[in-house]
Amino acid sequence: MTNTIIFTIATLAVLGLLLAIVLYIVAQKFKVEEDPRIDIVESKLPGANCGGCGKAGCRAFAEAAVKEGLDKCFCPVGGNPTMQKIAEALGLTVEAKEPQVAVVRCSGSCDKRKKTTVYDGLATCSTIASLYSGDTDCKFGCLGRGDCEAACKFDAIKINPQTGLPEVDEEKCTACGSCVKACPKGIIELRNKGPKSRRLYVACRNQDKGAVARKACLAACIGCGKCQKVCAFEAITVENNLAYIDYTKCRMCRKCAAECPTGAIHEVNFPPRPVKQEVPLNK
Amino acid sequence: MRTFKMGGVHPADKKISKDAAIEKLPIPKTVYISMGQHLGAPAEPCVAPGDKVKVGQLIANATGFVSAPVHSSVSGTVKSIEMVKDLAGKPGKAVVIDVEGDEWVDTIDRSETVVKEITLDKKQIVERIKECGVVGLGGATFPTNVKLSPPPTATPTCVIINGAECEPYLTSDYRVMIEKPDQLLIGGTILMKALGVDKCYIGIEENKPEAIKLLTEKAKEYPGVEVVKLKKKYPQGGEKQLIDAVIGKKVPSMGLPVDTGAVVQNVGTAFAVYEAVQKNKPLFEGIMTVTGDCSQEQRNFVHRVGTPLSFIMEHCGGVPEDAAKIISGGPMMGKAIVNIDAPTLKGTSSILYLTEAQTKRKPESNCIRCGKCVGACPMGLEPYLLNKLGRNNMFDELEAHKVYDCIECGCCSFSCPAYIPLLDTIRQSKAAVMKIMKSRPKK
Q1: What torsion, rounded to 10 degrees, do the Cα atoms B141, B144, B150, B156 define?
Q2: What angle do CA A156, A159, A162 make, to 5 degrees?
Q3: Across the interface, which of A121, A127, A132 has its CB nearest the CB of B338?
Q4: For the whole model, what pTM was predicted?
Q5: How far is residue B45's CA from residue B32's CA, in Å, rounded to a whole number?
Q6: Euclidean distance between the first and the last CA atom of chain A, given in angstroms as a whole number
Q7: Which of residues 223-262 of B touch A (CB under 8 A)?
Q8: A161 and A66 within one domain
Q9: Distance (Å) from the C-alpha of residue B184 to the closest C-alpha of chain A?
């Protein structure tokens, strides 16, 4: 009995030893040389594998960063601190980038944009977009079925059931761009976060003529050009009946938002406007 | 009786408009002739606002190999060239013409006489069909001349004329078979000549006995033409299914139908070919059905291309009160009409009114893997699996399971007892996979 046990243990031990030697030799012979810096860079990355950098994942980003340098690599999730750490580890320098955030360029909430048809099929935006112009008269606007919400890995964008529009949580948003790619109407844009997180943007994509746009949605940009005239910094362009604010030129004076007749220009995180003091005339 | 071997479903027949003779629809005051009436590149207008045009005059040129010219369907003045919303509400370029009188181009033979003798040769026929802008009227509107110029690798052996009309409700093809049998048979003969083959089959489903009887009788005068009676089963009118049903050959995956030797043309197309070749009449009229259980009238019309759908609806007594959904095409593959002011196209085959009970989708529940969709799929795919893979964006697996073979017939959704919108997801994933496959570098 004891003999059998001893014999079994001995056989397995010898077998294990032999195989270990074989494995060791194979591992030495077919060793893949890899830059150790790749592992270091990867350890500094957030590890979300979101693809926001344009690479297949964090490992692919690390490989590219080591191979090609940091000129064309930027991790939007980690942002400047992460890029700084990576640059230090690689002994390179990197320029700080302005942090960005996703903005939703549609303000056609349920009360401002009437539904004209009933859609009853698979509830994803991409399906609706492939079938027809959408269940409201605005063929550029948000379809509200939440493809962006499903695409977001950071829980930062959610459809508000009251308005039927997505809302971005700017604390959580990493500007990875997944929602931008997921939206079939191209409504979401990455814009600079701006000083003190203050931003101005045209929350509309409607390129129809003013009257048509207005009829479809009360909050539509009608391309009247008032904002363009009032802007002192040439930051606003009106093309195809639609205004666009260039965030690199905008100085946040907010004149355009005050001028917009439909309220299509949204201002975020600004202090409330001073209430005009009514000066009595006869005194 | 012949039919295709794999899958298929049996939706209720509902051919309630089959006894209504084809009438001429009045001409509206303004027509909107779309430039994208065919598969492929949209045509480019060659008229300018203010120009006078006659019926049958060329107003837009084809812009590539897979493209077709467009002709005016009315006489009058070109008002503008603008973006007009199609029935799905998506804008497309269209020529808007204000109608004045009804003056036709002189070259068109307007007489009712049936011209039997084919004087043009093979090349001239294809050229004429191209000039006349004839496209496939079975649904896909693929330019007919392209189908008649098969690649050198394929040798056509026969023509199959698709008279299956397997979609419920639709009767326009049936009316053509009953009312224009000679024209149809001559059309088939022309197609045979254009391809250099000596066999033409006309596949007709068993639920149209009058058409089968009449055409079998008439076909005796036309050498090479044979009427084939088919079992009633949807989607028999699908190109691949019809080839399987009539000559028993399978179109290879990713291959062309002509690889089997068969060239399939719809009944409407064969009639258009007859008119183009024998009467020199471009394709600017179409035959359509106005029907539905709740529709006040059941009628078949010849419409001028570009007539607003709302004009036709008005002409037939307006939209019925209990219509919840209006469809252009059959109930299985047709598209919902979102914009009723959209103009008709060459390929418009029907206006179909459905009630709420007929259209409302039932709430989706879980897949119980009963396999009904697998049994129903005429392409031998596994819809339940494609649905699962599609919802998880697993494109490699989708490709491995041949999602690109899907013909979007809707048999899977029709047969699913859990009301899962299978086709919706499969169509999405098919488009995504096709995009990936096209972006790959060619070997």
Answers
A1: 100
A2: 135
A3: A132
A4: 0.85
A5: 13
A6: 118
A7: none
A8: no
A9: 34
Domain extent at residue B395: 372-439
Is-contact B294 B353, C-beta < 8 A? Answer: yes
Specify whether B239 is located in the same domain as B384.
no
Out of B244, B279, B314, pick the residue that ends a domain: B279
Range(s) of the domain holding residue A44: 37-90
User: pLDDT tens, A158-193?
Assistant: 999 999 999 999 889 988 888 999 999 999 999 998
Contact B363, B356 (CB under 8 A): no
d(CA B266, CA B53): 30
- A142 within domain boundaries: yes
Confidence at B13, pLDDT banded by 50, 70, 90: confident
User: Within an 8 Å CB–CB cutoff, is residue B193 touching chain A?
Assistant: no
Domains in chain A, number: 2
Contact by Cβ (8 Å): B95, B78: yes
- A positions 104-133 inside 8 Å of B (CB): 117, 120-122, 124, 126-127, 130-133
Residues A109 and A205 both lie in one domain:
yes
Q: pLDDT of B234-275, one tens digit each?
A: 999 999 999 999 999 999 998 899 999 999 999 999 999 999
Q: Within this chain, do residues A120 and A255 fall inside the same structural domain, yes or no? A: yes
Interatomic CA distance for residues B416 and B367, integer angstroms:
9
A22 contact partners, CB below 8 Å, separation of at least 6: none
Distance from CA of A133 to the nearest CA of B (A): 5
Query: Which tokens sit at B56?
Result: 């049958």
